[in-house]
């Protein structure tokens, strides 16, 4: 089992303390003027995360949204922080008009190539497939992308991470990916569940064997902060501490800690980790930030 980083493939135990969902570079048509496109700012943010004890960052920025794959190895080397890059595709509205239509028939091929050969003209390989659901349902675009992701997963064994719009439709994603397209649930990471803080839904998802990612704090909040520990407590009490992941999901320049208003990547370790340790104990905190990511992003790569 290995975790594919932008430098090399790591044994899982080498990953260390991990921000399981974040962005160093990101450009979206729905966030004009807030692009993450400054290399110096990205380096400063990663260094701040490292100073707080961080050792690895999983960047969920998918195909076509300014991943800056060519810069990631240098940032990883200069900061000592491992970085996992993503392939995949976001919701249609994040792309310029016409872009999705040009590539939608080639998605599985693109995903496999970026996982096995390199992103663009680089030799930087992606380590996961990031896709996105719709609000409460899977629209035509979401289903198309997820079918391509499942095809790429079966070709490579890469994990699939899902953006759930406001935390919704995670059950529909499992119905499609796991039940219909036979992706193993342990290869599926359900993101943004903090934005839909229904404990019963979370428990049902956990029972189906997927990873549960709480990707906050976000500047959009959506009940993330005040209800996060309650959501985690319900899952921990039910025996699912070994399925939980936490990430910062910094998607705008304003949300960076080093060069913006924050909270940014370091917040996970300067604020959330002490709180989780205080409420649930050091073993749970170690599971969420170290042991679980090492298992969630590791796979037996086929290429």
TrEMBL record:
Residues the record lists as binding Zn(2+) 2: 130, 163, 192
CC cofactor note: Binds 2 divalent metal cations per subunit.
Cofactors required: a divalent metal cation
Pfam families: PTE
Keywords per UniProt: Hydrolase, Metal-binding
Highest taxon, organism lineage: Bacteria
GO molecular-function term, one example from the UniProt record: zinc ion binding
UniProt keyword Metal-binding present: yes
Sequence positions bearing N6-carboxylysine: 130
Binding-site residues for Zn(2+) 1, renumbered to this chain: 21, 23, 130, 249
Family that this chain belongs to: Belongs to the metallo-dependent hydrolases superfamily. Phosphotriesterase family.
Name of protein: Phosphotriesterase
Organism: Kribbella soli
């Amino acid at each position: 089992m290995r975790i594919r980083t932008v430098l090399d493939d790591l044994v899982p135990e080498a990953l260390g303390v991990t921000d399981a969902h974040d962005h160093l570079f990101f450009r979206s048509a729905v966030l004009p003027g807030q692009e993450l496109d400054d290399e110096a700012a990205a380096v400063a943010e990663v260094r701040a995360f490292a100073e707080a004890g961080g050792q690895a960052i999983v960047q969920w920025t998918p195909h076509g949204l300014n991943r800056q794959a060519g810069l990631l190895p240098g940032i990883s080397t200069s900061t000592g922080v491992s970085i996992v890059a993503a392939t995949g595709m976001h919701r249609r509205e994040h792309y310029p008009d016409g872009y999705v239509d040009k590539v939608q028939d080639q998605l599985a091929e693109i995903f496999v190539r970026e996982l096995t050969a390199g992103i663009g003209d680089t030799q930087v390989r992606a380590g996961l497939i990031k896709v996105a659901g719709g609000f409460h349902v899977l629209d035509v675009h979401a289903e198309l992308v997820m079918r391509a992701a499942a095809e790429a997963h079966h070709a490579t064994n890469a994990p699939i991470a899902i953006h759930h719009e406001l935390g919704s439709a995670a059950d529909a994603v499992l119905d499609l990916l796991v039940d219909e397209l036979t992706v193993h649930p342990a290869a599926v990471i359900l993101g943004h569940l903090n934005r839909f803080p229904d404990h019963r839904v979370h428990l049902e998802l956990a029972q189906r064997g997927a990873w549960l990612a709480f990707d906050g704090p976000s500047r959009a909040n959506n009940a993330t902060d005040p209800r996060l520990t309650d959501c985690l407590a319900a899952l921990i009490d039910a025996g699912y501490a070994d399925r939980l992941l936490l990430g910062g999901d910094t998607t705008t320049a304003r949300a960076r800690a080093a060069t913006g208003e924050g909270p940014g990547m370091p917040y996970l370790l300067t604020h959330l980790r002490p709180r989780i340790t205080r409420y649930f104990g050091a073993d749970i905190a170690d599971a969420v930030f170290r042991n679980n990511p090492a298992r969630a992003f590791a796979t037996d790569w086929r290429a």
